[in-house]
Design a protein that fits this description.
Number of helices: 7
Structural class: alpha/beta
CATH class: Alpha Beta
Order of helices and strands: EHHEHHEHHEHE
CATH architecture: 3-Layer(aba) Sandwich
Largest sheet: 5 strands, parallel
Number of strands: 5
Distance between the termini: 55 Å
Shape: globular
Radius of gyration: 17 Å
Number of domains: 1
CATH topology: Rossmann fold
Helix content: 40-55%
Strand order of the largest sheet: 3-2-1-4-5
Strand content: 5-15%
Length: 156
């Protein structure tokens, strides 16, 4: 027997962003880590400097999506963990509360003419930062500013 969702599914409760100020730590985007690893990157010095500044102010975080993206170039898990541990980086789970915010951002993307069929990683990362009260450290602020305008972002 096939199971179908009710026509009017109950709303998924979204986290309140009323008190969001980005003060609980810094979610470090994949591009920052890659710039730190690649000493030939134009952004290497800036990224290393920003990681240091942010790590002295509050905890650094990554989530499963960022971690996965960092494994794509091919480091071993042990090498990646060792690198992240230099900055005492916390491995933070994606909160369930970010699902509704991710879906909302993706809906806006589709309304604006986006053609992807599933939410992109930046939507999950932005929603994670928002519901966890985290600042985002990134070299590419456009996706976050466009879909999460209240996020505190550190970018060049």
């Amino acid at each position: 027997m096939a199971t179908t969702l009710p026509q009017s599914a109950p709303e998924v409760p979204a986290a309140s962003l009323t008190n969001y100020d980005g003060s609980a730590g810094t979610l470090v985007d994949t591009n920052i880590w890659l710039d730190c690893i690649d000493e030939t990157s134009t952004w290497h010095d800036w990224a290393v400097n920003q990681l240091q500044i942010c790590s002295e102010r509050s905890p650094l975080h990554i989530n499963l999506i960022i971690y996965t993206e960092l494994l794509v170039p091919g480091p071993t898990i042990a090498a990646l963990d060792e690198f992240l541990d230099v900055y005492d980086t916390l491995r933070s789970a994606l909160p369930w509360a970010c699902a509704a915010l991710t879906a909302k951002a993706f809906g806006l993307y589709r309304q604006r003419g986006g053609s992807k069929q599933v939410p992109m990683p930046d939507f999950y990362i932005g929603a994670h930062a928002a519901v966890s009260n985290l600042t985002v450290l990134t070299r590419d602020p456009a996706p976050y500013k466009g879909y999460f305008p209240r996020l505190v972002i550190v970018a060049p």
